[in-house]
Amino acid sequence: MTRLRRTATAAAALALTAAATAVFGFAGSASAHVTVNPKDATQGGYARVAFRVPNESDTASTTKLEVVLPENAPVGSVSTMPVPGWTVATEKRKVDPPIEVHGSQLTEAVSKITWTATGDAGVKPGQFQEFPVSMGPLPQVESMVFKTLQTYSDGNISRWIDEPVAGGEEPDSPAPVLTLTPASAPSASASAAPAAAAVASDDDDDEGEGTAIGLGVAGLVAGLAGLVLGGLAFARTRREPAARS
């Protein structure tokens, strides 16, 4: 039970820490920026990601989004999902050496994706829009940095092009980053599951052992009480004949 209480206390502390980080981290952020979601994928596999675009202007709408794929990490297959009210166009570039996709050697790869709003479909103040993309096989690199331009209806452009610095603070205009992990590396959630199961098993074992010990003691007490009562009854039967004689 002591271990169970320690586990519950630790879980509560972690939950409070996460909540505080979310609240104060969000409050401390100077502005929202374009991100890629989810933030991680597996090397060599295919991934469906979405570029999430919040509108930071109070008076203008976002009317264009340009996403540049990294030159050092070309991808052989890139396809987009239709977004109502938006047109999409892709640009390609030559790659050397070629990219192998399902046994074929590709000498070109998508280098840029541009979404443009039509009519009144722009991302308005206080709103955000997601632009889904499927891509793969993902390259054997640690991360992909997508430098992005966000154009507003008033002509202003937000340039999300700053690359992350290892061990440094987040840059003022960070580019969306997709982290890639080796296929053989277990995910954090997968490795945490056995550990959680082991803790639960230990707690169950402790509780089961405590219950068994309690039942054993109770049985021993009951047995001793029976012996005492039996002895008293035997002594009483011997005294009664003596008294009658």
Keywords:
four-stranded antiparallel beta sheet, globular, five-stranded antiparallel beta sheet, single chain, 245 residues, 2 helices, disordered C terminus, alpha+beta
Number of helices: 2
What is the helix content? 25-40%
The rounded Rg comes to 33 Å
- Structural class per helix/strand content? alpha+beta
Question: Biggest sheet, open or closed, and with what strands and sense?
Answer: 5 strands, antiparallel
Order of helices and strands: HEEEEEEEEEEEEH
Please report which band the strand proportion falls in: under 5%, 5-15%, 15-25%, 25-35%, 35-45% or over 45%.
Answer: 25-35%
- Distance between the first and last residues' Cα: 61 Å
Output the strand order for the largest sheet.
6-7-4-10-11
Report the mean per-residue pLDDT as an integer. 77
Apparent shape: globular
Poorly predicted sequence stretches spanning 5 or more consecutive residues: 8-30, 231-245
| Extended strand count | 12
Summary?
The chain has about 240 residues and is of the alpha+beta class. It has helices spanning about 1-30, 190-245, and strands spanning about 35, 40, 45-55, 60-70, 75-80, 85-100, 105-115, 130-135, 145, 145-150, 155-160, 175-180.
